[in-house]
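Running log. JK asked me to keep both predictions on one page so they can be read side by side. First protein, sequence followed by its tokens:
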Amino acid sequence: MTHSPALLPPEALRYLEHVRVEKRLAARTVTLYTLDLEKLARFAAQVDVPLLRLQTAHIRRFVALMHGGGRGGRGIALILSGWRGFFGWAAAQGLVPSNPVQGVRAPRAPKPLPKALGVDDAVRLAEFSLDGADPWLEARDAAMVELLYGCGLRVGELVGLDAAPGPDTERLGRGWIDLQAAEAHVLGKGAKRRSLPVGAAALQALQAWLQLRATPFA
């Protein structure tokens, strides 16, 4: 189905013909460009400014309106890309002095928070036992679970922990456990160090694993 452009000035229609014929863009892409330019033309009509007279301040305002209306950052970025292409072409044709969309960015999409382990799942994980498993591995896994859940560590922080500070711990950017102070010193996000209390259950599990680790294999 062919979309019939409305609201668009002759210059915008020339641009659409340019991308269709000279750039040989797919019909679906040309339709999306048309819809995006029509959206821009409606915004321009609302502020009573001709399409080719729009300034960067107008574009930023339109972005804010779209974002406030619930459109996500990724969708806005795609629309801006289409507008930027149009004004870039218009500038090359001498129709506008500069590209008002240049430098305008879409709002950043919020990063989803990592899914936290539920209390029931954490309890089941802590109580899980492999019958007949290697005692060394079982003790190690128990210590890992206790440190992860009891101290609220991230996995990356856990695997970067040494059992005790060594000569290269600081240089290598690693964390360590202070058994006497019952604290974990970890290197978190942004290379920021933080100290966390280590509970009795985690200390007990860690000491049990360290004892087994020091035992020579039979």
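And the second, directly underneath as requested:
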Amino acid sequence: MQNNIQNDYGLPSEVCTNLSTHRRQVVGMAYVPMQKWSMPMPLEKGFCSGTIFYDLNKPFRP
């Protein structure tokens, strides 16, 4: 028997009843490169930028 639920898009989505499979899966992985220490931005500027570190300030430009 298949169980179907509605997902966020209103489309049918299968429900997995075998939870032991999900317990073995990796949720996510991240790669964080080493960074050199540098003087942080002033807090007001960092708050607007989303980071206080100049090297991590990478604004999104479509």
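Observation for JK regarding the second prediction: The chain has two helices and two strands.
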